[in-house]
């Protein structure tokens, strides 16, 4: 069966996607910061392996990638993300927080993609899917939320350029907006539940081919302007 490696698998959208790929028969390497505390994740049925991973720890990423170097990975799902401070317009309340959001949302997905490239190259028609956000769309940006918007716009740019560079390897690279989702990040008033988002994201990820590489997709299958 194909193999998925996913970050931030213990809750929210990552947990939902992990459940869905396991139910589909995939082998899942589910990364989270604290596997001992991830009881719901550990209780999932199917071929799941839990791995401890703090995505801002470059050495930990390299160690994990080395562990799986001989194993083909069909799908790398960069899901882990943070919002940072909920600042409004004309405010960045903490620049250290800005740097941390960039480290998690922008730098870590690229580090993951490059570290796991040997495993992705071993699979047939592998994919790298990064959960970004519509808030990273520069053309749609209404102002405010500079930190989160910048981190997602930057990861979109990084993944688009990576897509161009590894097209020849047959690896499809996309970024996705999951919708405004009822998770800890999205809050209870969000527009859609996690099942709707997870079902939509999985359908889009499973459906894309190398022809779609470099694209920015909504969870409903539509595209989003940069
Ligand atoms: N919910 C929405 O409405 C929405 C909208 C657009 C985009 N997104 C994006 O969707 C993705 C998932 O969001 P969510 O709503 O599921 O958020 P969530 O419920 O807050 O879950 C975030 C996940 O990321 C993990 N994580 C955070 N920082 C990490 C780090 N440094 N190292 C490893 N794991 C880390 C968390 O692990 P811990 O449990 O250890 O903290 C958790 O598993 C994010 O990239 C987010 O930006 C969400």
From TrEMBL:
Organism of origin: Ferrovibrio xuzhouensis
SUPFAM superfamilies reported in the protein's UniProt record: NAD(P)-binding Rossmann-fold domains (SSF51735)
InterPro entries linked: NAD(P)-bd_dom_sf, SDR_enzymes, SDR_fam
Signal peptide annotation: none
Name of this chain's protein: SDR family oxidoreductase
């Amino acid at each position: 069966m194909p193999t998925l490696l996913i970050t931030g698998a213990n809750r929210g959208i990552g947990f939902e996607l992990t459940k869905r790929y396991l139910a589909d028969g995939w082998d899942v390497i589910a990364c989270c910061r604290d596997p001992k505390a991830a009881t719901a994740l550990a209780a999932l049925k199917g071929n799941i392996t839990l791995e401890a991973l703090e995505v801002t720890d470059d050495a930990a990423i390299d160690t994990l990638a080395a562990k799986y170097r001989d194993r083909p990975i069909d799908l790398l799902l960069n899901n882990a993300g943070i919002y940072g401070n909920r600042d409004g317009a004309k405010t960045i309340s903490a620049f250290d927080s800005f740097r941390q959001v960039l480290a998690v949302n922008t730098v870590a997905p690229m580090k993951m993609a490059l570290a796991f490239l040997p495993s992705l190259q071993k699979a047939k028609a592998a994919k790298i899917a990064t959960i970004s956000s519509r808030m990273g769309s520069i053309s749609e940006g209404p102002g405010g939320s500079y930190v989160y918007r910048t981190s997602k716009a930057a990861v979109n740019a990084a993944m688009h350029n990576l897509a161009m560079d590894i097209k020849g390897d047959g690896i499809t690279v996309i970024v996705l907006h999951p919708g405004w989702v009822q998770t800890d990040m999205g809050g209870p008033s969000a527009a859609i539940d996690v099942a709707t988002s997870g079902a939509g994201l999985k359908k889009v990820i499973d459906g894309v081919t190398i022809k779609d590489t470099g694209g920015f997709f909504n969870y409903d299958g539509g595209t989003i302007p940069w």
